[in-house]
Design a protein that fits this description.
GO cellular component, one term: cytochrome complex
GO molecular function: electron transfer activity; heme binding; metal ion binding; oxidoreductase activity, acting on diphenols and related substances as donors, oxygen as acceptor
Distance between the termini: 55 Å
Strand content: 5-15%
Structural class: mainly alpha
Family: Belongs to the cytochrome ubiquinol oxidase subunit 1 family.
Keywords: Cell membrane, Electron transport, Heme, Iron, Membrane, Metal-binding, Transmembrane, Transmembrane helix, Transport
Subcellular location: Cell inner membrane; Cell membrane
Number of strands: 6
Number of helices: 14
C-alpha cells in the first residue's frame, strides 16, 4: 500500500518526526542543567537545606530527560546516511567537522562530569561536585552552540567553495563557516527559548503543588524563581526574536513573506495580518484580520516602507505558506502569553499575593508545557520556511535525498512511530510521575544500587557480611551463590 506514496515526502516526515521528538528533551535539559547549577550555588552560598532539596528533586528529572535526549539524538545522525546520503556526501566536508566538534567538546564534557553530578555528592567535595554541575550545564550550552552553527550554516551558507565533484568544501577561514550571518541570532533565540521552557515547567510544577498546599516552602521557592525568570527573560526573548526576524528578512526574505502571509507586494506599507486562512491558489489570505502598515513598521521601522511579496519569488522557490504562517503565529502567540503570565506574577509579587492567587497558579499550570509547543512551532517555521532548499539557495531538498523506494522509508517511519511512543512515552510518564511527588526536606536524589559493582570472578561478599572477618567469607563459588 506504500507504493503510491512519495519517498521524499516520507523521508521528510520521518526526519521531522524524529527531530521534533528529540528537541523536546534538549530544550528542557539545557535550561534545567543551568537551573540545577543555580540551586547548588545557592545552597553552597546560603547553607539552606531547601536549595539542596530542590536540587535533588530536579536532578532525578534531569537524569531521565538527559538520557532520552541522548538516545533520541543518535537516531537522527543515522538518517543522514540512510535517507539523505546525497546531502551527506555534498555537505559532509563542512558539517561533518562541526558535528564532530560537538561530540568532542560537548558530549564528552557532559558525559564525563554527569556521573559525578548524579552520584558523586557523597564521594567528592562540595566544590568539586559544584564544578561538575557547572561543567554539565556548560556542556549543554556548547552542544547547542555547535548544532545551531550547523543548522545556521544550512540557512545562511558562507565560507565555502565548490569542489570539482559538487561538494561544499571549506574555503578560507572556518570562522566564516561557524559564525555565519544567522548563527548569533539563532543561538541567542534558541538558548533563551530553552531557558523559558524550563522556567515554565518548573513554574507549572510549583503551581501544581501550591494549589494543593500553599504552605509548601519548596513549591513556593521554585514557583517564585520560575516567575522571576518569566518576567525578566520573556521581554528579552521577544526583542531577540525581533532581531532574528530582521536578520531573516535580510538573508531569507521569502521565509518572512510566508510568515507574514504577504502573497502580494505592498509598495506603500504592508499590513500586519494577525489571523486568516492563507490560500496559495488564489494568492491571498482569506478572512484576514490585519493592522494597516504595521508589518512595515515592525520590519522596516517605517509604516510607509515598501515590502516585497511572494509575487517577486519564482513559484518553485516559495515555501509552503500555510504551515509557516500558522506555526509562526503559534510561537508568537505563546510568547505573548508567557509575557502575560510573567507580568501577572510581578503584580502578584508587588501586592504580596504571589502564593495566594489561585488563578495565577492555574494559569502557570496550564502554561507549563507551553515552552515545548513554542520551540517546536519555531523550528517548523525555520525549517519549512527554508524550503524548497536543504542548503538555502544552493541544494534543493529533492536533490539531497537517498535513492530509496517509498515502502522502505514508510516501514522505518512506522517503526519509529511505534518505538518512540512506547519508549519515550514511558519516559515522559515517569517524569510526570516524579513531578507529581511533593518536594520535601531530605530529598534523596538519584538512587544508586545497594550491592555495588557486579564481579565476574573471585569472591563476592554478601551485603550482610563483615568484610573484615575472613571466617565469614564464603569458601567457594557454590557457597557464595
Amino acid at each position: 500500500m506504500f507504493d503510491q506514496l512519495d519517498a521524499l515526502v516520507l523521508a521528510r516526515i520521518q526526519f521531522a518526526f524524529t527531530v521534533s521528538f528529540h528537541f523536546i528533551f534538549p530544550a528542557f535539559s539545557i535550561g534545567l542543567a543551568s537551573f540545577l547549577a543555580v540551586l547548588e550555588g545557592l545552597w553552597l552560598k546560603t547553607g539552606k537545606q531547601l536549595y539542596l532539596d530542590l536540587f535533588k528533586y530536579w536532578l532525578k528529572i534531569f537524569a531521565i530527560a538527559f538520557a532520552m535526549g541522548v538516545v533520541s539524538g543518535i537516531v537522527m545522525s543515522y538518517q543522514f546516511g540512510t535517507n539523505w546520503s546525497v546531502f551527506s556526501d555534498k555537505a559532509g566536508p563542512v558539517i561533518g567537522p562541526l558535528m564532530a566538534y560537538e561530540v568532542l567538546t560537548a558530549f564528552f564534557l557532559e558525559a564525563g562530569f554527569l556521573g559525578v553530578m548524579l552520584f558523586g555528592m557523597e564521594k567528592v567535595g562540595k566544590k568539586l561536585h559544584f564544578l561538575a554541575t557547572l561543567m554539565v550545564a556548560f556542556g549543554t550550552f556548547v552542544s547547542a552552540f555547535w548544532i545551531l552553527s550547523v543548522n545556521s550554516w544550512m540557512q545562511t551558507p558562507t565560507g565555502f567553495e565548490m569542489g570539482a565533484n559538487g561538494q561544499f568544501l571549506p574555503g578560507g577561514s572556518w570562522w566564516d563557516i561557524v559564525f555565519n550571518p544567522s548563527f548569533p541570532y539563532r543561538l541567542v533565540h534558541t538558548v533563551l527559548a530553552a531557558y523559558l521552557t524550563t522556567a515554565f515547567v518548573v513554574g507549572g510544577v510549583g503551581a501544581w503543588h501550591l494549589l494543593r498546599d500553599r504552605a509548601n516552602e519548596h513549591a513556593r521557592t521554585m514557583f517564585s524563581m520560575a516567575m522571576w525568570m518569566a518576567a525578566l527573560v520573556v521581554p528579552v526573548q521577544i526583542f531577540a526574536g525581533d532581531m532574528h526576524g530582521l536578520n531573516t528578512l535580510e538573508h531569507q526574505p521569502q521565509k518572512v513573506m510566508a510568515m507574514e502571509g504577504h502573497f502580494q507586494s505592498h509598495p506603500d506599507g504592508a499590513p500586519l495580518i494577525l489571523f486568516g486562512i492563507p490560500d496559495s491558489e488564489s494568492r491571498t489570505v482569506r478572512y484576514a484580520i490585519e493592522i494597516p502598515k504595521a508589518s512595515s513598521l515592525i520590519l522596516k521601522h517605517d509604516p510607509n516602507a515598501p515590502l516585497a511579496g511572494l509575487d517577486t519569488i519564482p513559484e518553485d522557490e516559495q515555501p509552503p505558506v500555510g504551515i509557516v504562517f500558522w506555526s509562526f503565529r503559534v510561537m508568537v502567540g505563546l510568547g505573548f502569553a508567557m509575557l502575560g503570565v510573567g507580568l501577572w506574577s510581578l503584580v502578584a509579587r508587588w501586592r504580596k499575593r504571589l502564593y495566594d492567587w489561585t488563578w495565577l497558579h492555574r494559569a502557570a499550570l496550564v502554561m507549563g508545557p507551553s515552552g515545548f509547543v513554542a520551540v517546536i512551532a519555531g523550528w517548523i517555521t525555520t525549517e519549512v520556511g527554508r524550503q524548497p532548499y536543504v542548503i538555502y539557495g544552493l541544494l534543493r531538498t529533492d536533490d539531497a535525498a537517498s535513492p530509496l523506494a517509498a515502502p522502505a522509508v514508510a516501514t522505518s517511519l512506522l517503526a519509529f512511530v511505534v518505538v518512540y511512543f512506547a519508549v519515550f512515552g514511558a519516559g515522559v510518564w515517569y517524569i510526570l510521575h516524579l513531578m507529581r511527588g511533593v518536594p520535601h526536606t531530605g530529598e534523596k536524589g538519584v538512587k544508586r544500587g545497594d550491592t555495588g559493582p557486579i564481579r565476574t570472578a573471585g569472591i563476592t561478599p554478601g551485603p550482610t557480611q563483615n568484610p573484615g572477618d575472613p571466617d565469614e567469607l564464603p569458601r567457594n563459588r557454590e557457597e557464595a551463590e
